[in-house]
C-alpha cells in the first residue's frame, strides 16, 4: 500500500533546505567554468534520446540529496506498486494501469485476483482488425462506399492525447480525414460538419463514462446530422463508441459490434494507449499505433529498472521539485522545436495539472508546501518571437524543457532543419550565459543604452534531444512525462489519479443550465447572479 509520508518532515528535505542556502545565489555560469566535465556528468543517454540536465542550478550534492528524498518517501515501492496493479488510486479505489496497455509480454497483471492482460490483448485485437477493415475499405458506409472521414467526439483525455498524436504523426498519415470535436461550441461543431459528407463519415464517440455532457450533447447533434444525411438508413454503421459504459453506448444507438472497451484502471488523461486512441490507429495505421505503444513500453522499462541517478523521468521530477519547493519557481515551460508537436503542451497541461493540482496529503490534511507546477508552452522557433523575451530579461525564472530532434522526417537537400536547431541550441545557451559587458550590437558603444541590452543568464533548462520524431520516440516522450508526473505526486504525498475539482465544476454547470432553461436564477454570489441575469436579459435580443 502506498505510504503516507510528509516530504517536508523527512531528513532529506531538511538537508535540502540547508543545502538551498548554499545554492541559492550560485551561478550556473560559474559551475560550468569550474568544471569542464559538467555536461558529461549531468546527462543521460537512453536509446535514441539524450537528456542533458547540466544547465540546472544543481551540484552533485543537490542531486544526491534529491535522490535521497526519492528513496526516503518510498518511490521504488510506489513504482512497482503501480506496475503491479496495486490500487494506488486510493480515493477512487482503483489500480492505475495505463502501463499495462503497452505491455506486450506474456506476464499476467493481476488486479486483486483478476488478470487484466486478457481484456487488454482482446481490445488491441479489436482495434487492429477494425483499423484494417476500415482502411482497406472492407468496412463500408451504409450505402456500400469507402469512408473518407472520421470525427472523434470527446473531451479532456478523450480528445487531447489522440489529437496531439495524430498531429504529431502527420508524416505517417493516410488519406482519411480525422477531425476532433471537443468543446460544446455550436459555431465550431457546425463549421466542421458543413465541410463533411455524412454519407462517408464515421463518428467515434469517446467517453470513458459516457455521461460527460459536452460529449453526449455533441454526439446527439452529430447523430441527428447522420440521420438526416443517411435518410435514417444504417446510421449505426457510422457510429463507434469507446467507453467503460457499454450499456450507455448501446442505448445511445451504437451497434454492439462497434463498442470498444475502457476500464476503470485507466485514467482519461492516460488513456490514448487504449481504444481511446482509435482515431490514431485509423489515421496512421495499426502498425504505427503499436509502435507508439512499444516506444512507451520501452520507457516504462527504463523507469522501472534504472537507478534514480540514471532515470530520466525521476531526474526530471526531482529537478522540478527542487525549483518548485526550494527556489519557489511556480511555472515550467515546455518548448518542442517541432511544429508537429504543437498540441503537446496542451496534452501535458491536462496530464500534469489535473493529476497534481491537489492540496491534500494522502491522509487528507492540507499540504504545507507547494504541489503541482503550472505547465505551459508553445513550439519553437515561434515561441521565441512570442514570450521568450520574458525568459531572457523578465524578473521571473521559468525552468524550460527544450525538446528537439536530430533529424527531420523528410531529409531534403535545402533543409531548414539546421536553422531550426541552431535556434534550439542558441536559446538554452543564451539563457545559461546571458550577456553582460560588451554589447551584442552596434549600439553597444552607446553607454546609455547598453544596460538595457544586458541580460544575466543563469536561467535553467533541460534539453531532450531525440533522434527523430517517430511513433516510437513519441510514445517514449509521452510516457516520460507521465512518469515524471507520478513521481512528483509520490514525493508531494498527494493522490495523482482523481480529479474531484473538475467534477464539481461539471456539477455546478448542470445546475446553472437548468436555471437558465427555467429562466429563474437561484441564489448565487452577487457577481454570478448579476452575470446570469444579464445573460438571460440579453439572450436572443
Ligand atoms: O475533465 C474531467 C474529466 O473527467 C477528465 O478527467 C476526462 O478525461 C474528461 O473529463 C472526459 O471524461 P469522459 O471520457 O468520461 O467523457
UniProtKB/TrEMBL annotation:
Biological processes annotated in GO: gluconeogenesis; glucose 6-phosphate metabolic process; glycolytic process
UniProtKB keywords: Cytoplasm, Gluconeogenesis, Glycolysis, Isomerase
Location in the cell: Cytoplasm
Catalytic residues (UniProt): 354, 385, 506
The reaction(s) this protein catalyses: alpha-D-glucose 6-phosphate = beta-D-fructose 6-phosphate
Pfam families the record matches: PGI
EC numbers: 5.3.1.9
An annotated GO cellular component: cytosol
A molecular function (GO) term: carbohydrate derivative binding
SUPFAM superfamilies, sorted: SIS domain
InterPro entries recorded: G6P_Isomerase, G6P_Isomerase_C, Phosphoglucose_isomerase_CS, SIS_dom_sf, SIS_PGI_1, SIS_PGI_2
Superkingdom in the source lineage: Bacteria
Main location: cytoplasm
Family annotation (Gene3D superfamilies): 1.10.1390.10, Glucose-6-phosphate isomerase like protein, domain 1
Pathway: Carbohydrate degradation; glycolysis; D-glyceraldehyde 3-phosphate and glycerone phosphate from D-glucose: step 2/4; Carbohydrate biosynthesis; gluconeogenesis
Record-stated family: Belongs to the GPI family.
NCBIfam families from the UniProt entry: PRK00179.1
Function noted in UniProt: Catalyzes the reversible isomerization of glucose-6-phosphate to fructose-6-phosphate.
Name of this chain's protein: Glucose-6-phosphate isomerase
Native source organism of the sequence: Myroides guanonis
Gene, per the UniProt record: pgi
Amino acid at each position: 500500500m502506498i505510504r503516507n509520508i510528509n516530504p517536508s518532515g523527512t531528513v532529506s528535505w531538511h538537508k535540502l533546505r540547508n543545502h538551498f542556502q548554499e545554492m541559492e545565489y550560485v551561478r550556473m555560469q560559474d559551475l560550468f567554468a569550474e568544471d569542464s566535465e559538467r555536461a558529461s556528468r549531468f546527462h543521460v543517454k537512453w536509446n535514441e534520446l539524450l537528456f542533458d540536465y547540466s544547465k540546472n542550478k544543481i551540484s552533485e550534492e543537490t542531486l544526491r540529496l534529491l535522490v535521497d528524498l526519492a528513496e526516503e518517501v518510498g518511490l521504488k515501492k510506489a513504482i512497482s506498486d503501480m506496475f503491479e496493479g496495486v490500487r494506488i488510486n486510493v480515493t477512487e479505489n482503483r489500480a492505475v494501469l495505463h502501463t499495462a496497455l503497452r505491455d506486450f509480454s506474456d506476464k499476467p497483471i493481476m488486479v486483486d485476483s483478476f488478470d487484466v492482460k486478457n481484456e487488454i490483448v482482446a481490445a488491441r485485437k479489436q482495434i487492429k482488425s477494425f483499423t484494417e477493415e476500415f482502411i482497406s475499405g472492407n468496412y463500408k458506409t451504409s450505402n456500400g462506399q469507402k469512408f473518407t472521414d472520421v470525427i472523434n467526439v470527446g473531451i479532456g483525455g478523450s480528445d487531447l492525447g489522440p489529437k496531439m498524436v495524430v498531429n504529431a504523426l502527420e508524416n505517417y498519415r493516410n488519406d482519411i480525414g480525422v477531425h476532433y470535436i471537443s468543446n460544446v461550441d455550436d459555431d465550431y461543431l457546425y463549421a466542421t460538419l458543413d465541410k463533411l459528407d455524412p454519407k462517408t463519415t464515421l463518428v467515434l464517440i469517446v467517453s470513458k463514462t459516457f455521461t460527460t455532457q459536452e460529449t453526449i450533447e455533441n454526439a446527439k447533434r452529430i447523430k441527428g446530422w447522420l440521420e438526416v444525411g443517411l435518410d435514417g438508413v444504417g446510421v449505426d454503421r457510422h457510429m463507434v463508441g469507446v467507453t467503460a459504459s457499454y450499456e450507455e453506448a448501446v442505448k445511445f444507438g451504437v451497434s454492439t459490434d462497434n463498442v470498444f472497451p475502457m476500464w476503470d484502471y485507466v485514467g482519461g488523461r492516460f488513456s490514448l494507449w487504449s481504444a481511446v486512441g482509435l482515431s490514431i490507429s485509423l489515421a496512421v495505421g495499426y502498425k504505427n499505433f503499436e509502435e507508439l505503444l512499444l516506444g512507451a513500453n520501452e520507457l516504462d522499462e527504463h523507469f522501472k529498472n534504472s537507478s534514480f541517478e540514471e532515470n530520466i523521468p525521476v531526474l526530471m521530477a526531482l529537478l522540478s521539485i527542487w525549483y518548485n519547493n526550494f527556489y519557489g519557481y511556480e511555472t515550467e515551460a515546455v518548448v518542442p522545436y517541432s511544429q508537429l508537436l504543437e498540441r503537446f503542451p496542451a496534452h501535458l497541461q491536462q496530464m500534469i495539472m489535473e493529476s497534481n493540482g491537489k492540496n491534500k496529503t494522502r491522509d487528507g490534511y492540507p499540504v504545507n508546501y507547494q504541489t503541482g507546477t503550472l505547465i505551459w508552452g508553445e513550439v519553437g522557433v515561434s515561441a521565441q518571437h512570442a514570450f521568450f523575451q520574458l525568459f531572457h530579461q523578465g524578473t521571473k525564472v521559468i525552468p524550460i524543457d527544450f525538446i528537439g530532434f536530430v533529424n527531420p522526417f523528410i531529409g531534403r537537400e535545402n533543409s531548414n532543419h539546421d536553422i531550426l536547431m541552431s535556434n534550439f541550441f542558441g536559446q538554452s545557451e543564451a539563457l545559461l550565459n546571458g550577456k553582460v559587458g560588451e554589447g551584442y550590437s552596434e549600439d553597444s558603444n552607446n553607454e546609455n543604452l547598453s544596460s538595457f541590452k544586458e541580460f544575466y543568464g543563469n536561467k535553467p533548462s533541460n534539453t531532450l534531444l531525440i533522434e527523430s520524431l517517430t511513433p516510437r520516440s513519441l510514445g517514449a516522450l509521452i510516457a516520460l512525462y507521465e512518469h515524471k508526473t507520478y513521481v512528483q505526486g509520490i514525493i508531494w504525498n498527494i493522490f495523482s489519479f482523481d480529479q474531484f475539482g473538475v467534477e464539481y465544476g461539471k456539477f455546478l454547470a448542470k445546475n446553472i443550465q437548468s436555471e437558465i432553461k427555467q429562466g429563474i436564477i437561484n441564489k448565487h454570489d452577487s457577481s454570478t447572479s448579476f452575470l446570469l441575469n444579464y445573460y438571460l436579459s440579453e439572450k436572443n435580443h
